[in-house]
């Protein structure tokens, strides 16, 4: 904030005069910019718009309000110009620091080919068309060169931000667009540096010889800056980084020396009096050839980026709005509109043509390369600055310069919509690969992956395999997978080379405890496989040997590769001798939660209290009482599909218990009255799916008079649900429930979440696994696969090219 000072006649002292209203107006103006900026960006966030769009909108409005224009006129405009120039020096320095010039010395990659091709086509097209539209009367061909170069360039920081915000940064197209954008931005800005050397905008000299010697001087200074920065800065910054290791505070003296060194290399080309080299481009060159690795470089990048994004950019666009005097904007100037559409068309056609041609040579799809070309049209702050500078120095008319800025901002506005269209097309191309029991083709094999933590899971695993098969045709494949934590001790015992029965043939585990554990499990499951040999049962051994951080990824990868319909995992708590559950293994709980979140198929969690200790289901005379609780939702429908699998087994006595909400109750009427129309429609669709699924199951397994019995319970609230669950205490050896996903709004489970100890089990599963429930009843909680290829199913590393 600028304030005036007045000299005190009596005491010869200076004091601040804060009584002038324009001083308060400046302060309030900047406060208004920051507040409105935050609010407007929050409103535009669903459209994927970056801060540049928000800042430009606010700056254009506030910069043209008469009161603000009066407050920043005269000497204050000089101060504002100096602030903007210093901010752009910082912006260009950190932009160069984040780039890697060594890519220019390597063989061109695919992103480099796309960058070069799109730049060339756009530059040629722009240089051919712009002279005929007479953008300027002073040096038209030089201006056409600069404008053509700006049209062919890309604002890589803005493009990278848009791609990151919309989460396609890991996709093949996102990586290609980011790399090509950085390449284009680096090349075009270097061309600006060379162009300014040979075509300076300040202090024109009449004699050609003088112009030649000044250009030669600036070129030598440029080379000296590049050479000095490339050779000396790595030595100096490596020393600073070694003296300030990670985890310790930066030494103040080293910080001051580093900043002084940065100022030295940025200002070096400006020292000679004859030099008119641009300080903004000098800062870019210095940043480009500084090492961008190491603690000090990262510290500089983080601090400057924070300063720019929070303070400078809002002020910068206020300055841009101040430069674009809308009162002088001639909306009826047809030639200005012709320049606007011509420049916009040139940028789009040039970029799209170049990327499509290059994409065809590289074997990419045309729609995706066209989208890539549209993304590469995005411009940034430096391009806005150049256009505003052209207006301020009277190289172009106010209306023409404003049109150029509008084109630049428009390329940023439509970029998020291009990304959204890419995501939409990618979702259509990703096949809907359903891996769930509910949609299992009856003519295909049933594939189940069963996890084991140790020998204590053998009994439950064998019983699960037996009841799931049930004489099913065309057969069942069970993948008994040992889930072993990879510790330092176990890692030291690994040997290269195949191990019998292991899923990963590249290593063999020689740790004695692990080997004995695996041998006992292998003997048991192979014995069951031999018993059921020739009856359509296949048992295979797998091993997930990982740390708890990566085990879930390995198990999900196995399930995806083996195309199983469901993963059944042991609960992280084990059974104590007294029948209670212990405190559990936090590592396996983390694994279970991550698998529930990322699994490519349905997931079941088995809370084993007595299921592994009961009589083997394949023994003569064996009997097993199993119940399935059905309330509604996709997880309950998947649980019902699992119950249909076990219902085929002759030893299983299955009972289906359906909890129905009493719609006549006051609670149900009150809840339905507060649901909005969208919620009501969604609830009705879920209930329709529930009824169709249950009717099919009822007709097939219950109405025919088989071994499946049926019971309904009409309840009004969660308290009655809890009581109904307690009434099942001890009646069944296994209770199958859904985790609760997709369940329509129901008062039957409302409030049960308040006491949940294990949210991964869902409200019903958590109640049944509680310490006050039966010690003889085991639970299987099932979650249906979250389908790929739908709205939430597209991976962020998708491939579309």
TrEMBL record:
Record carries keyword Ribonucleoprotein: no
UniProt topology in membrane: Multi-pass membrane protein
Occurrences of domain Cation/H(+) antiporter C-terminal (ranges): 623-785
Cation/H+ exchanger transmembrane domain segment(s): 35-418
Localization, UniProt: Membrane
Cation/H(+) antiporter central domain: residues covered: 532-613
Membrane spanning stretches: 113-135, 141-164, 176-200, 212-240, 252-270, 304-324, 336-362, 403-423
UniProt keyword Ion transport, yes or no: yes
Main location: membrane
A Pfam family that the UniProt record links to this protein: Na_H_Exchanger
Keywords carried by this UniProt record: Ion transport, Membrane, Potassium, Potassium transport, Transmembrane, Transmembrane helix, Transport
InterPro entries listed in its UniProt record: Cation/H_exchanger_TM (IPR006153), CHX17_2nd (IPR057291), CHX17_C (IPR057290), CPA2_transporter (IPR050794), Na+/solute_symporter_sf (IPR038770)
Family to which the UniProt record says this protein belongs: Belongs to the monovalent cation:proton antiporter 2 (CPA2) transporter (TC 2.A.37) family. CHX (TC 2.A.37.4) subfamily.
Record's protein name: Cation/H(+) antiporter 28
Phylogenetic lineage: Eukaryota, Viridiplantae, Streptophyta, Embryophyta, Tracheophyta
